[in-house]
């Protein structure tokens, strides 16, 4: 009986190497740059958008205060606004807050909404007066973003502005204001201002207020009044 001949081994096919991105789309070098090098990229009109975007990210990771003016200038850029905000948000220096507040009067539409969101993330209480006025803006999206940011700021002054706006707004803006006030109450509670937070929950429980916020407030009252460790 003849033995079958094993099939010949197939030659190994060399896997194609992944393409190497062009130099202007490589980020490895930017990921190790210091603030001075990043600023050179951010302020160079000839720098590709990709490099500027990565430079903003790196500046935020470094907390590079020196790069704040360069990133602030990019807040007006339709394509780089998000990256500039990403870089500014983690920088724990008043100049970053000042840059974002200054942009409130210079931007419109989605660029403005993005800056408002960044201010909310940073909980910049100095922006409260400007945000309060924006709750009455003709653009409902801007008004809603301002209400949300005030809720994130979450202090007594923000709560006062949100309570006042509930009586003057309507529709989707009123819902955003109510949600902002509910968030404000949660911040106050977390920071030890229990009585003030409970007062806001009671205020939000009124039958004429938007149902989602009203239900959230009522649930918060039940939670706090039945909590084992509550003050007595």
Question: What is this entry, summarized?
Answer:
The chain is mainly alpha-helical and 232 residues long. It has twelve helices and no strands.
Overview of the structural elements:
The protein has 232 residues and is mostly helical. It is built from 12 helices and no strands. The protein folds into 2 domains: 27-103, Alpha Horseshoe (Leucine-rich Repeat Variant), CATH 1.25.10; 127-232, Leucine-rich Repeat Variant (Alpha Horseshoe), CATH 1.25.10. Helix 9 packs antiparallel against helix 10 (171-190) and helix 11 (194-204) crosses helix 12 (211-225). The chain has helices spanning 35-43, 49-62, 68-73, 81-88, 94-103, 109-122, 128-134, 140-153, 156-166, 171-190, 194-204, 211-225.
């Amino acid at each position: 009986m003849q033995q079958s001949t094993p099939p010949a081994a197939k030659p190994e096919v060399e896997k194609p190497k992944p393409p190497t991105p062009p130099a202007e789309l490589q980020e490895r070098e930017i990921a190790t740059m210091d603030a001075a090098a990043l600023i050179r990229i951010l302020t160079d009109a000839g720098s590709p958008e990709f490099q500027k975007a990565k430079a903003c990210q790196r500046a935020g990771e470094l907390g590079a205060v020196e790069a704040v003016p360069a990133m602030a200038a990019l807040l007006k850029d339709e394509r780089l606004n998000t990256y500039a905000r990403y870089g500014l948000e983690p920088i724990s220096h008043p100049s970053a807050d000042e840059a974002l507040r200054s942009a409130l009067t210079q931007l419109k539409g989605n660029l403005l909404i993005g800056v408002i969101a960044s201010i909310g993330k940073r909980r910049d209480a100095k922006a409260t007066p400007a945000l309060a006025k924006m709750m009455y803006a003709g653009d409902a999206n801007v008004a809603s973003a301002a209400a949300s940011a005030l809720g994130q700021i979450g202090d007594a002054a923000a709560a006062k502005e949100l309570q006042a706006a509930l009586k003057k707004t309507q529709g989707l803006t009123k819902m955003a204001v109510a949600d902002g006030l509910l968030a404000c109450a949660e911040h106050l509670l977390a920071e030890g201002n229990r009585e003030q937070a409970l007062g806001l929950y009671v205020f939000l429980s009124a039958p004429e207020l938007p149902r989602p916020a009203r239900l959230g407030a009522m649930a918060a009252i039940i939670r706090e009044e039945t909590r084992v460790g509550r003050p007595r």
